[in-house]
Amino acid sequence: MDSPQAVQLGPRKKRPRQMGTSGASIPHDVRFRDLVLFILEKKMGTTRRAFLMDLARRKGFRVENELSDSVTHIVAENNTGSDVLEWLQLQNIKASSELELLDISWLTECMRAGKPVEMMGRHQLVVRRNSSLSSVPGSQNGPAAVQRISQYACQRRTTLNNYNQVFTDAFDILAENDEFRENEVSCLAFMRAASVLKSLPFPIISMKDTEGIPCLGDKTKCVIEGIIEDGESSEAKAVLNDERYKSFKLFTSVFGVGLKTAEKWFRMGYRTLSEIKSDKSLKFTQMQKAGFLYYEDLVSRVSRPEAEAVSMLVKEAVVAFLPDALVTMTGGFRRGKMTGHDVDFLITSPEATEDEEQQLLHKVTDFWRQQGLLLYCDIIESTFEKFKQPSRKVDALDHFQKCFLILKLHHGRVHREKSSEQEGKSWKAIRVDLVMCPYDRWAFALLGWTGSRQFERDLRRYATHERKMMLDNHALYDKTKRMFLEAESEEEIFAHLGLDYIEPWERNA
């Protein structure tokens, strides 16, 4: 419930500003004298605010009852930076540029630690810069300005709630076109721009809103400006109509077809899949043959109910051979997505021998083959070396044993899903990846296979440039200490890197 002071509009709307009196009667020692907190009641309620104030004081923090000139940090719950600044404006209070506007998550983390924790980008309340806030004191250069947003996706929380999809869709198209043309620098620029816009808690309405946002260069800003003016991107529209892009998009949609094959087919003059399939002189790999054979199923997205059904199928088969095995669905579905191109699983066991680990995927796929569920299988054996330093490449593949599969999923296994049974077909071909890793590498593999791609790139880039460490799906190596850092969970890896833990559903960068 909002407090009266947050909505009072009469001549008495300015609250008395008592200097240094708040909290003086509270019998708690102040341990952290550089910080003076004010907890905003707006959207929080009186009872919860009183509880948090008492808790913070007991932990040694100085907390003011009223907003005074000595306050250094305003803490709010379920408010944006704009909400806080609007509240300050109602109180006729000018926000100092040194005043920190922070989310309640910062204070709760301080409570857990028993001391002030570092203020990360995720703690900062963001001010949306538009005309309605242009008169708010402190909104242009204040504490919650967007320049506080980190250049690293691993320091931003990116949910599936994308306020800037019109821009990020255009960037995704332009990045994909650059990837097809192997223009790595431009591709990465568009991917980073899309990533940072996906993390914003507000929509970009004018070019002024982009001020201070990292990862936006002249090229990407030009695209944003065009969309603001015209409602669409002329650059992205041109790409969508480009014959080369359309051909590469089509060819690479076939399972097993990469850029080199797509380039070859395009240079040979092919523009449709039927032309390619009808050319008897072309030789296809087993993977590509399976890709053509089950093409319609594989290009239709996998729904979450289908992914859950596959998960049951995988777990049933795995535990039949290794009862103590841990099977975790990774990729986009672990990040909360409702659809995906395939379903990825990470498998490990705390008790399995090296031989049992090596044999598991073979046993599971043989089991499915006997049941008539295995439509395609390619097992890649492990080349993992336990004490090898992590790769310096941000996109390096791991060396765990893995298999790329196409499984037959019967519609009867899918709950709450209206599957279209075309021509009496009672099943759907689903792409599945299984990865087997040693138990002591599980946390690193889980982090790497969860994604997103840009999140993982920035996590490894952050480790290298900010912490002098090397991270990949196998290990974390501290170059300063010249030692591997052990971790049994993702949380421990984030802690080693000095990062706030980001939940899987907040890694959709």
Outline the fold blueprint.
Layout (H helix, E strand, L loop, with lengths): L3 H4 L24 E8 L6 H13 L2 E4 L8 E4 L4 H10 L9 E4 H10 L51 H16 L3 H15 L19 H13 L3 H7 L2 H9 L7 H9 L5 H6 L7 H8 L1 H5 L2 E2 H18 L4 E4 L1 H4 L4 E2 L2 E6 L5 H18 L2 E7 L20 E10 L16 E10 L5 H9 L2 H15 L1 E3 L4 E3 L4 E2 L5 H7 L13
Parallel strand pairs: 1-2, 1-3, 3-4, 8-11
Antiparallel strand pairs: 5-7, 6-8, 9-10, 10-11, 12-13, 13-14
Helix pairs in contact: 5-6, 5-7, 5-8, 9-10, 14-16
Approximate strand percentage: 5-15%
Helical coverage, percent range = 25-40%
Largest sheet: 5 strands, mixed
- Structural category: alpha/beta
Number of domains: 5
The gyration radius over C-alpha positions equals 27 Å
Number of strands: 14
- According to CATH, the fold-level topology of the largest domain is Rossmann fold
What is the typical, i.e. mean, pLDDT?
A: 87
Short description:
This protein is α/β, with parallel strands linked by helices and 509 residues long.
General description of the model:
With 509 residues, the chain is α/β, with parallel strands linked by helices. Helix 3 links the parallel strand 3 and strand 4. The two termini are 34 Å apart.
